[in-house]
Design goal:
Keywords: Transferase. The protein is of the alpha/beta class. It is 48% helix and 17% strand. It contains 13 helices and eight strands.
């Protein structure tokens, strides 16, 4: 069993896949399994990847390249990659991003030292060929971080820049879901963090490319919004099932209001959210926000109430 499996979905990244793969194959850590999934890309991404693999013969036996028969989207590609992997730890990398060459080594060392289920590292934006803005790992307590995730738009819900113990994901049945592409990170991370013992390091372990406008989830289409609503429902249903004490109910309500805000901002009928999200908000302020949107209030006006309530809620979190 390899120590780490790096999972990489491939679609439309012919400009970036070579540089991405080079940083994966040049890792200082040796015991890595690489699982690439070709999600029926229409460009030369796979051809370029294969040429790059040939330049690293010492890594060639560690590479799996899986071909989808039809396009399954980001969630489906990540699910396929996980099913084909064998590593004790799982790491997700988007095929247009990069890793510092000691990233895997640092994350594994921290995981072995701490015994954590998830090790979270810092990341930096990558733009015009260089690292720019640095983002440290969130240093919140377990409950505070989970609440921030559920509220949405407060802390990063990225699936990458971390390693996960495989048995944590398997024991709780938490996988990427085909059909959830936009907000796919949220759908996984907000569930897995519920169970996880988390450890963090501030070393940069990931470079996130900011200048790729053709990635899986860059555009805000109705299809992507539908995916976001599905992710919200999946997470809310999960919290209802597991959170018997109601510790995270208000945070989940705040996150669900965000789905309605997004729909209204993009001029989608709120019935579209209703048709997907069977979770029902219970907090009075959150219910009021949704009711005002239904009555045709402008989003910018509802936002005044929504953002004020979210801020008050988060101030209360820090005092607990």
């Amino acid at each position: 069993m390899p120590t780490v499996s790096i999972l990489v979905p491939i679609y439309g990244v012919e400009k970036y896949i070579e540089q991405c793969a080079e940083t994966l194959f040049q890792q200082s850590f040796a015991d890595i399994e690489y699982v690439f999934v070709n999600d029926c890309t229409k460009d030369r991404s796979v051809e370029i990847l294969q040429q790059t693999i040939d330049r690293f013969p010492e890594r060639k036996s560690q590479v799996k390249l899986i071909q989808h028969e039809h396009n399954k989207g980001l969630g489906g590609a990540r699910h396929t990659a996980f099913a084909a992997s064998r590593g004790r730890y799982i790491m997700h990398v988007d095929s247009d991003d990069l890793l510092p060459l000691d990233a895997v080594e640092k994350l594994v060392k921290a995981a072995e030292k701490s015994g954590a289920d998830i090790v979270d590292g810092g990341f930096a934006d990558w733009e015009n060929g260089q690292a720019t803005l640095f983002h440290p790992a969130a240093h919140d307590s377990h409950r505070t971080y989970q609440r921030k995730l559920l509220c949405q738009n407060i802390t990063s819900n990225r699936i990458w820049g971390r390693i996960y113990r495989r048995d944590l994901l398997e024991n709780h049945g938490i996988y990427s879901v085909e059909g959830i592409d936009y907000s796919e990170d949220y759908a996984v991370v907000a569930r897995v963090m519920y169970f996880a013992k988390r450890y963090f390091i501030d070393d940069v372990v990931y470079y996130y490319r900011k200048d790729n406008i053709t990635s899986y989830t860059h555009d805000i289409s109705e299809k992507n919004l539908t995916s976001h609503f599905k992710a919200c429902q999946l997470v809310a249903s999960f919290i209802e099932q597991h959170d018997n004490k109601g510790i995270y109910r208000t945070a989940t309500d705040i996150g669900m209001v965000n789905a309605y805000r997004v729909a209204a901002e993009q001029h989608l009928p709120l019935e579209k959210v209703d048709s997907i999200c069977t979770y029902r908000v219970t907090h009075p302020v959150c219910r009021l926000c949704i009711a005002l949107l239904r009555r045709g209030w402008k989003v910018k006006h509802v936002n005044l109430l929504y953002l004020l309530f979210r801020r008050i809620y988060n101030l209360q979190i820090f005092r607990r």
